[in-house]
Write a structure and sequence with these properties.
The complex is a heterodimer of chains A (480) and B (305). Chain A has 480 residues and is an alpha+beta fold. Chain A has helices at residues 41-44, 53-56, 65-80, 86-117, 129-135, 137-158, 178-206, 211-216, 298-304, 311-324, 334-353, 405-408, 410-424, 432-444, 449-452, and strands at residues 2-6, 16-22, 28-35, 39-40, 167-168, 171-172, 223-228, 240-244, 250-253, 262-265, 274-277, 294-295, 372-380, 383-391, 397-403, 455-456, 461-467, 473-478. Chain B has helices at residues 14-20, 24-29, 73-85, 94-98, 110-120, 161-172, 244-247, 265-275, 286-290, and strands at residues 2-8, 33-37, 61-67, 70-72, 86-92, 137-142, 152-154. The longest helix of chain B has 13 residues, at 73-85. The chains are: A alpha+beta (480), B alpha/beta (305).
């Protein structure tokens, strides 16, 4: 028995370790991703005025603060029983689109890019964005520029890009002026150009080279959850939730009814809980016969949507489907799906900026405290995000339940890591390149462990224990 | 070449994104910086690249940047290792400097936090507290400077990219760095008449303002909307000056922390409100509001009501 511990899992948001356990013959007996942090948001939000929640819950995650900001504002709308004016809603949606662009650029180039551009087994000191900057200086400079520009766009619209304050119960606090709108349009165009370049570049230079890895590493069989409009069109801000099983059968339901579907398991080796669909039976992560497991995030959204409303992204979706089918299970294809979404988000941002209503100064309705429960749900870059608040008659929070995208992917991430470890580690042989390839399956999910560990304390524990037949740990790879 | 190590503890990642938000100037700084350890962007492992070491190890560095608050024993050990290996420690962001939002958790015991999370959440199937192979929580949230000596503090939630860049440039030139000791109000463009128009009320409706302008908006406190500007250090607006939340016509919530070390924002705020004729006692959830970002040494579990 031997334990391999990979710690930290790097180039992801937050901290985790992987423990891989090897049996006597040096083959993988088990693998776990352990989240090491817990911060306790659901407890310390109790007693706070609910209108402050959109400003507090942003701090669950600094990479996707907009998702928490908007899910929280939507939960507040429901608590107060109000509907934001059209311009307020559209400004929220615009920010969501831009935040998606910024995030997807960040993940593809800064976090995961090193694996593909430099190679999974490249020296660890160059297998990163700094290596990319050396190898492709012009691409890197443009990427840095456009990602930064997306952040600047959010500042123009909302005053603040990270941990914003502009989405409020009842709408949006800052109307968009015509001068600002004119300033934003060329920026959005530049982002669209980068989105087009990225998917073309990836289809030509990246994915073909790794197609064997894509088709084998981290592949598991799960269902999928994502948001769609009534006609099945992909939507990132609002809509119905679609829970689709691995065979493509699906049910659509309102986010406020999420408790009819989603239940969370507590396991002793991770601070992050394991959500699953209880309508599909008892929870099991057995790779041969998983039960109740569904995935969220880019690939899930691409799988559940019937179509995409913008032309370039729709064309990419059609090509993707023609190549891989519909209930696509290859984990590394999260990256491809992410680039389709990057394109969609850029097209959507331009569409919203050209909407005549976007500069209407009526962006917010006043609200009055009352005792109520409200559920706010939106698609975060990393998947479906649910905020559920209950308030007393003074509008103070009496309970808060947060189900975060990365939590929903907790079980699938563990299953993918185990599958990859079993596939790659044979007869006790492994090196840093192999272990990095195991890590790549985690990266594909773009996990946000700060989000996942909102409960108490910011890290995912991934632990690969290498253990012999007597249960002796030979080596542990963790992100500790 | 200056060697840089970066580590994060109980974090949200916003400070790291803020580093990237330096944008192109960061690329120009790169030739003089050598990043030797930074989990968010690179793969240097703490226990060796294949997990072969039994002791946590960070390479020697000239500058160590740390973010996040200290929430478990492992955060603490990592902070100590950073201190051992780095000549200069920069504590970046309000979590590292004052506990940040996670320190709101200091109003509750760990037991209460565990109970909520693993047994009382509406969608949770109750289970035991996870502990296998997981680090033990510290008794409360600590700021980094409560655990190790810090050389340079850059507060903010998140810190403005300009300040991070200025600090790095100053260090590269062998100079020191600190933020000005002035309040958010000192840089706020709004109109103050030293007298509130209405009683303090919750921000449940928009203040009066002209879209696209800030210079003719009445101070939010004077409009009866609680703003923590008077007791908060300025800097969030960078060289543009206008505070970031004010740009959204929203009140400050104190993310840059106290104006100077040793200040008492709670007392300062009470004074500021009283001086314009407002009654601080009308403010809902005062303790958590006035200490929203600075709870590491200030907030404690309250008697159960």
């Amino acid at each position: 028995m031997k334990e391999i511990v990979i710690q930290p899992v790097s180039r992801i948001e937050g901290g985790a370790k992987i423990t891989i356990t090897l049996d006597d013959t040096g083959n993988v007996a088990d693998a776990q991703v352990n989240v090491l942090e817990l911060r306790g948001f659901e407890r310390f939000c109790i007693g706070r005025p609910v209108e402050e929640m959109p400003r507090i819950t942003t701090r669950i995650c600094g990479v996707c603060p907009w998702s928490h900001h908007l899910a929280s504002a939507k939960a507040c709308d429901a608590v107060f029983g109000v509907t934001p004016p059209p311009a307020g809603r559209k400004l929220r949606e615009l920010c969501n689109s831009i935040a998606f662009m910024e995030e997807h650029i960040l993940h593809f180039y800064f976090l995961s890019g090193g694996d593909f551009v430099m190679g999974p087994d490249a020296d660890y000191m160059v297998r990163n964005v700094f290596g990319i900057a050396q190898k492709l200086p012009d691409v890197a400079r443009n990427v840095v520029k456009v990602r930064h520009m997306c952040a600047h766009m959010l500042e123009i619209i909302a005053g603040k890009a990270i941990h914003p304050t502009a989405a409020v119960p009842g709408g949006f606090s800052k109307p968009l002026t015509e001068a600002e709108r004119k300033q934003l349009i060329p920026m959005a165009q530049q982002a669209l150009e980068l989105a087009k370049f990225s998917i073309d570049y990836a289809k030509k230079s990246i994915f073909p080279a790794y197609i064997d890895v894509i088709k084998t590493v981290g592949v598991i069989k799960t269902g999928f959850l994502g948001t769609v409009k009534n006609d099945g069109t992909m939507d990132m801000y609002d809509g119905k939730l679609r829970m689709m099983d691995a065979d493509g059968k699906y049910e659509d339901f309102e986010a406020k009814d999420y408790l009819d579907y989603i239940s969370e398991k507590v396991l002793p080796w991770s601070f992050v809980k394991f959500p699953y669909n209880k309508k599909w039976g008892e929870f099991s992560m057995d790779p041969e016969n998983p039960q109740g497991i569904f995935r969220v995030n880019t690939l899930a959204r691409i799988n559940v949507a019937d179509k995409i409303s913008t032309p370039l992204a729709q064309a990419e979706l059609e090509e993707f489907r023609a190549t891989f089918g519909r209930q696509v299970q290859a984990t590394l294809l999260f990256h491809w799906a992410r680039l389709i979404e990057l394109l969609y988000s850029a097209e959507k941002a331009i569409e919203l900026l050209n909407d005549p209503e976007i500069t209407n100064t009526n962006t917010r309705v006043p609200v009055t405290p009352r005792a109520a429960r409200g559920v706010g749900c939106t698609e975060a870059p990393r998947g479906t995000l649910i905020h559920d608040y209950t308030t007393d008659d003074k509008g103070l929070v009496t309970s808060a339940n947060l189900i975060v995208a990365t939590c929903m992917n907790n079980a699938p991430i563990n299953m993918s890591v185990k599958q990859a470890a079993k596939l790659l580690i044979k007869d006790g042989k492994y090196d840093q390149g192999i272990l990095n390839t195991v890590e790549m399956t985690i990266r594909a999910y773009d996990p946000c462990l700060s989000c996942a560990s909102h409960d108490l304390n910011g890290q995912l524990a991934c632990k690969l224990d290498i253990v012999d037949a007597d249960g002796e740990v030979i080596e542990t790879l963790t992100n500790k | 070449m200056v060697r840089v190590a970066e580590e994060w503890f109980a974090v949200c990642g916003g400070c790291e994104v803020s580093i990237l938000d330096i944008g192109e100037p960061l690329l120009d700084l790169l030739p003089s910086l050598e990043f030797v350890h930074m989990p968010v962007l690179m793969d240097h492992k703490l226990y060796g690249q294949t997990g072969e070491k039994s002791k946590m190890e960070i390479p020697d560095a000239d500058i160590g940047i740390v973010t996040g608050s200290i929430r478990n024993q492992e955060n603490k050990e990592l902070a100590e290792e950073m201190r051992r290996k780095c000549k200069i420690i920069i504590s970046l962001g309000s979590c590292a400097n004052f506990g940040g939002i996670p320190a709101l958790g200091n109003m509750y015991t760990n037991a209460q936090i565990y109970d909520t999370n693993y047994r009382n959440d509406t969608s949770t199937e109750a289970g035991e507290n996870p502990s296998e192979g997981l680090p033990a929580l510290t008794d409360r949230v600590y700021s980094v400077n409560e655990v190790i000596k810090v050389d340079i503090s850059i507060p903010g939630c998140p810190p403005t990219p300009e300040w991070i860049a200025s600090a790095l440039v100053a260090l590269l030139e062998g100079k020191s760095f600190s933020l000005p000791e002035r309040s958010v109000c000192d840089d706020c463009p709004v109109v103050r008449e030293k007298k509130a128009k209405v009683d303090i009320r919750r921000p449940l409706q928009a203040p009066e303002f002209t879209p696209g302008r800030y210079d003719n908006m009445r101070c939010l406190n004077e409009q009866g909307i609680l703003c923590l500007g008077p007791a908060t250090r300025t800097g969030c607006g960078g060289s543009e000056k206008t505070p970031r939340c004010i740009k959204a016509y929203m009140p400050c919530r104190g993310c840059y922390g106290p104006i100077r070390d040793g200040a008492n924002p709670m007392v300062d705020m009470m004074g500021a409100l009283s001086s314009v004729g407002l009654d601080p006692k009308q403010i809902e959830d005062r303790m958590a509001t006035f200490n929203r970002f600075i709870g590491s040494g200030r907030l404690r579990p309250m008697p159960v009501r």
